[in-house]
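Many groups now describe folds with learned vocabularies. In that spirit, our science desk offers one protein's residues alongside their backbone shape tokens.
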Amino acid sequence: MPSSAILSYDGTDNDADAVALGRLLRRANADVALAYVRHAPEAENRLEVVERQKAARLLDAGAALLGPPEAERHVVLSASTPEGLAMLAADLGADLIVFGSEYRTPEGHVQPGASAQRLLDGGTTAIAVAPAGMRDWRDAKINELGSVGYDGGEAAAGVAASLAGALGGEVSDSPDAADVLVLGSRPDGPPGQIQLEAAVRQRLEEAPVPVLVLPVGSALIF
């Protein structure tokens, strides 16, 4: 079964970058849903109705940006965005959570924001991060991405091969020359958790292309 992804979306430009990455993942046969985390319910019923409507409209806008087929939308109530997304991923059995980069990130660079960073330190779901400015990529450019590089062991190599095959591309001989980068966790890390070696984390922080980060033992299929 192809991988499933949850796209974190709150209407910001950087989350529009995540939507662009969602379109790429759809091209690789992934099932992509959108999620918005609300941090607390309103005490008054009238205000709660208003906030629910705002959340629904926000996710409708994200789904329209993602394009057909129509994506599922989820509103999560949680005091913590990363915890809410992790809970949703566990409930849905999702393989991947997709983020845009931190809002001050220069165009063409990847920088996980606070929520992504939390899940990159011991999280149990694979994480994807879009480079800043990916929202401005033409669909034609997204459709040309097919070279997938990897770093971090056999698991990363296997996912890179699966993703490259789904995109009609190839596994790159050099991660620095790839269109998409797959990074694996330390093989001696806790099973099912993300634990990156220093050199692999540095590659993440220097990447100019979309990045997928895998927990120990993860085997995404595209």
